[in-house]
Write a structure and sequence with these properties.
About 70% of the residues lie in helices and about 0% in strands. The protein has about 250 residues and is mainly α. The protein has a domain of about 150 residues: Serine Threonine Protein Phosphatase 5, Tetratricopeptide repeat (Alpha Horseshoe). Helix 2 runs antiparallel to helix 3 and helix 3 packs antiparallel against helix 4. It is globular, with a radius of gyration of 18 Å. The relative contact order is 0.09.
């Protein structure tokens, strides 16, 4: 799920959902949407919140599946079906990534279905491109395909002013650059990702951004960034769960 945080023009519900989501309170945020979840876009958003919880906290798989089935059941237009298919692919990706169950084929099929349903100008297209990049990078180990997908997502997010999605595309493009030894490019991308997340108040995503930038910075800055990431990680109750090993204190050289 993408987004741009909140502005003064947002209604109180949108503001409350964003604030809860940004602090890792996905279940509470989803509960606020439950009364209007018979509307397809709301149903998809509610499912997306619970799927994000699965990815970050590695729990709540059954609740996410139930919410996703409900969203699929109320979808009537291609846009809504495509958005639900995009979430279906993301849930399958998360389950595969965390070793819950190998659902890689389901992830590819669902994102392919989303691509067929969402028009090239659809608001959901940049997010779909980003998620196809995740599959290419982490499930198929094809970094060139991942880079192309991330760049499409980055261009689409820029055109739409989707700051949160941009924070993800910056970070993943930077990770590929780091893997290629392009340290300056990696440092720039990680710094942009961190800047956007801090501006948006996306607290649950700030620790990973700090840790990622630390990987591209020399000492003593790297240690300072990891220390701050560790503080936020503990403040949020140990989410994202997959960050724990990355934040373990490192022995002195």
């Amino acid at each position: 799920m993408s987004g741009s945080g909140t502005t003064e023009e947002d209604d109180p519900l949108r503001t409350a959902v964003w604030r809860l989501r940004s602090r890792g309170c996905w279940t509470d945020a989803a509960a606020l949407l439950a009364p209007t979840a018979d509307r397809p876009p709301v149903a998809v958003e509610r499912a997306a919140l619970l799927i994000e919880r699965c990815l970050y906290a590695e729990c709540g798989w059954a609740e996410a599946e139930d919410a996703l089935r409900a969203a699929e059941a109320v979808a009537r237009e291609d846009e809504d079906r495509g958005a639900a298919a995009c979430e279906r692919g993301y849930l399958a990706y998360a389950a595969t990534l965390h070793g819950v169950r190998d659902r890689a084929d389901e992830a590819r099929s669902a994102l392919g279905r989303a691509a067929a349903l969402l028009s090239p100008s659809s608001p959901g297209r940049p997010l779909l491109d980003f998620r196809r990049g995740l599959l290419a990078q982490y499930l198929a180990d094809t970094p060139q395909a991942a880079r192309a997908a991330y760049r499409r997502a980055h261009a689409g997010a820029t055109a739409r002013g989707d700051a949160l999605l941009l924070s993800f595309t910056w970070r993943h493009l930077a990770a590929l650059a780091l893997g290629d030894g392009e340290l300056a490019e990696a440092r720039h991308g990680f710094a942009e990702s961190l800047r956007l997340r801090e501006e948006l108040g996306y607290l649950v995503g700030t620790a990973p951004a700090l840790a990622a930038l630390a990987d591209a910075e020399p000492e003593p800055e790297a240690t300072r960034l990891r220390t701050e990431a560790r503080r936020l990680f503990h403040l949020l109750g140990g989410v994202p769960t997959w960050l724990a090993g990355h934040l373990a204190p490192r022995p002195a050289a």
